[in-house]
């Protein structure tokens, strides 16, 4: 890809006649679109009957777009296999946990592990790559579309056989599986791998190990499928490869993107939930570190289907989304979609043009964001996002554990977003990182909601602490083994040993009236909790239960110095307004101890994205909540858009407004 910012749309030229195509391209040029994504659902157009493959139309479309100065992301169409692959072949279809085979007509209806599906997917991908892989204007590839967005684990016969092979590769002997899963319970012991079932219908709940391991198996297999497609493309094309994923889907994004070239995702967060939008920017920036990420899909106004429609974005919000994304490290910002579908199940979905070719309610938003992108592009291309000093772990593996064990309907994505939003509101520049990420450059590490801590992660986090980092672990962290069983030596396994505490109880603390006290504040405690007694030298209580029956006097927050740093255990979640204040006080205290500099006093709803230039810093300040806000400039700066000099002190921003401030040096300390 060339060095520029991309502003794009998803387009389905195979659905429209020539007059509409010419109309669309002219309007794309008018609004500043410079990249288009095509082909993701077009398998039946490319191969209307088995082996009758013809890519001429798509070659011509890419060439036509290039002639008008518009680049192309080409997609593989494997999310929507054609009728000749589906009809009369239920063995090729996805099977849900009720044993129901999917029918033809939507998408993701085929099992991606079926051998015939894999063969045909490889063949159509090969033909596409051969036909368009070296065309001028082809700048990238997207594999499939939103893996596992509408389905989760498949329970077909193909998957059953692969499941047994996976188990044998993992455990070697059935005795080891029985031991690790504890299958003596409820007479679940197996005599061979072929006897291990899939987690389909059952009278009650499945063994936790079975349910969680099957999810991990499914995640590995979808990453394998992506790897096969990527390898085929690379035989014919040097353009980088991605997939439009999400933290909402049933995939392990860390595994999925290991074999891909750049990260991209889809997001349809509402304006009222802007934290759910920003958390994606702060996560996907780190998935392929050093390579800009893409927002491959977001709505120009609202999302919708035959059964639902969201609230249209308020005026100015989409521009704020685009500015925030580019400032936080995005190279591409793309809409779904260009022209409203006139048929199908997503007819009500927001678009740039209507089905009859006229501007929609979102059209003004697209124009505003386009102008902002043009204004910011030279400033952003001359700088790079600054690495945060605070990192928070995100784990799709943890999400699998919570799907198996949601307790009181806990949702991993919601838990993580709410926890993250506090860092956002506090003005702490932050990043979300996958479990396998390096910790270099960070000073504060937060790992909430990580039921199982792998030995590799534990070793890396311990080295981080010994070198001076502060690690806040919990809540709901470390209480399960990698097989989704309970530790039998300590409640939190090795984490507990390192913290120098003894977990006295683990129990559901909600509804017990338990109140904790820490940092001079009191708050009710909630969620499944662990409460402690410090036992080892250096371990001390930071937060104690003031009122809580048998747990009164025990600790719910502890810390222990290890090497140059500290390990902090948060065993219970402070809840309510008082709990929110306590958590923020905890974060602020340890942010201070860790020596975080990348922090501002931006008012809630306004963010600062710091970027590093050659000897200078840019602050991209964006109001995200529509209420306006302010931030204190730590030193004299320059408005990078107007060149006006600005004194140190308070700077206000209006509703969905953005400002770009240039500082000499690192922009962190008053000068």
UniProtKB/TrEMBL annotation:
The UniProt entry's sequence similarity note says: Belongs to the glycosyl hydrolase 42 family.
Domain annotation Beta-galactosidase C-terminal: ranges: 605-662
Task: Cite the SUPFAM superfamilies for this sequence.
Answer: (Trans)glycosidases (SSF51445), Class I glutamine amidotransferase-like (SSF52317)
Q: Could you tell me which InterPro entries the record lists for this protein?
A: Beta_galactosidase_C (IPR013739), Beta_galactosidase_Trimer (IPR013738), Class_I_gatase-like (IPR029062), GH (IPR017853), Glyco_hydro_42 (IPR003476), Glyco_hydro_42_N (IPR013529)
Superkingdom to which the source organism belongs: Bacteria
What sort of enzyme, by top EC class, is this?
Answer: hydrolase
Enumerate the GO terms in the molecular function aspect. Answer: beta-galactosidase activity
What reaction does this enzyme carry out catalytically?
Hydrolysis of terminal non-reducing beta-D-galactose residues in beta-D-galactosides
Record key words, sorted: Glycosidase, Hydrolase, Metal-binding, Zinc
Pfam families on file: Glyco_hydro_42, Glyco_hydro_42C, Glyco_hydro_42M
Q: By what name is this protein known?
A: Beta-galactosidase
Which Gene3D superfamilies does the record associate with it? Answer: 3.40.50.880, Glycosidases (3.20.20.80)
């Amino acid at each position: 890809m060339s060095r520029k910012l991309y502003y794009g749309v998803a387009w389905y030229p195979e659905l429209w006649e020539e007059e509409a195509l010419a109309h669309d391209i002219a309007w794309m040029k008018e609004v500043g679109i410079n990249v288009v994504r095509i082909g993701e659902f077009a398998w039946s157009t490319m191969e209307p009957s088995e082996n009758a493959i013809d890519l001429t139309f798509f070659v011509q479309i890419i060439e036509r777009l290039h002639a008008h100065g518009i680049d192309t992301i080409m997609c593989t169409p494997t999310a929507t296999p054609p009728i000749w692959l589906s009809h009369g072949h239920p063995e090729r279809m996805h099977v849900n946990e009720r044993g129901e085979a999917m029918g033809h007509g939507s998408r993701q209806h085929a099992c991606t592990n079926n051998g015939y599906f894999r063969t045909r997917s490889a063949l159509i991908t090969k033909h596409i790559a051969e036909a368009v892989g070296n065309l001028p204007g082809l700048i990238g590839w997207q594999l499939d579309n939103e893996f596992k967005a509408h389905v989760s684990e498949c329970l077909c016969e193909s998957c059953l056989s692969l499941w047994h092979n996976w188990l044998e590769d993992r455990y070697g002997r059935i005795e080891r599986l029985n031991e690790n899963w504890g299958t003596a319970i409820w007479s679940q012991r197996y005599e061979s791998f072929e006897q291990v079932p899939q987690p389909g219908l059952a009278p009650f709940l499945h063994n936790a190990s079975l349910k969680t391991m099957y999810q991990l198996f499914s995640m590995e297999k979808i990453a394998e499928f992506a790897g096969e497609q990527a390898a085929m493309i690379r035989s014919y094309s040097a353009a980088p490869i991605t997939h439009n994923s999400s933290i909402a889907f049933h995939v392990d994004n860390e595994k999925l993107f290991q074999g891909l070239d750049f990260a991209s995702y889809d997001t349809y967060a509402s304006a009222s939930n802007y934290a759910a939008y920003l958390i994606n920017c702060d996560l996907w920036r780190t998935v392929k570190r050093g390579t800009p990420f893409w927002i491959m899909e977001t709505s120009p106004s609202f999302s919708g289907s035959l059964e639902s429609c969201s609230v249209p974005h308020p005026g100015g919000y989409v521009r704020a989304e685009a500015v925030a994304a580019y400032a936080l490290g995005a190279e591409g910002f793309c809409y779904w979609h260009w022209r409203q579908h006139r048929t199908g199940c997503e007819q009500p979905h927001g678009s740039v043009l209507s089905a009859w070719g006229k501007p929609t309610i979102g059209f003004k938003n697209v124009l505003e964001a386009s102008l902002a992108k043009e204004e910011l592009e030279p400033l952003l291309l001359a700088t790079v996002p600054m690495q945060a000093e605070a990192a928070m772990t995100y784990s799709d593996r943890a999400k699998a554990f919570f799907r198996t064990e949601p307790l009181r309907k806990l949702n991993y994505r919601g838990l993580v977003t709410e926890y993250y939003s506090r860092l956002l509101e506090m003005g702490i520049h932050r990043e979300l990182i996958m479990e396998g990420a390096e910790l270099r450059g960070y000073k504060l590490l937060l790992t909430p909601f990580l039921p199982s801590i792998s030995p590799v992660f534990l070793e890396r986090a311990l080295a981080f602490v010994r070198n001076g980092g502060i690690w806040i672990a919990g809540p709901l962290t470390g209480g399960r083994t990698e097989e989704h069983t309970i530790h039998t030596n300590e409640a939190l396994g090795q984490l507990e040993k390192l913290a120098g505490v003894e977990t006295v109880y683990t129990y559901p603390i909600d509804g017990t009236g338990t109140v904790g006290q820490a940092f001079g504040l009191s708050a009710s405690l909630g969620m499944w909790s662990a409460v402690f007694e410090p036992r080892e030298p250096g371990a001390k209580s930071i937060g104690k239960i003031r009122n809580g029956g048998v747990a009164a006097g025990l600790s719910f927050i502890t810390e222990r110095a290890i090497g140059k740093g500290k390990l902090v255990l948060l065993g219970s979640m402070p809840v309510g307004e008082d709990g929110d204040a306590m958590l923020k006080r905890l974060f602020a205290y340890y942010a201070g101890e860790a020596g975080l500099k990348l922090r501002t006093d931006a008012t809630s709803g306004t963010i600062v994205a710091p970027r590093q230039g050659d000897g200078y810093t840019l602050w991209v300040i964006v109001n995200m909540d529509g209420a306006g806000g302010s931030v204190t400039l730590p030193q004299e700066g320059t408005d990078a858009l107007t060149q006006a000099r600005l004194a140190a002190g308070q700077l206000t921003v209006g509703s969905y407004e953005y400002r770009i401030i240039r500082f000499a040096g690192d922009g962190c300390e008053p000068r």
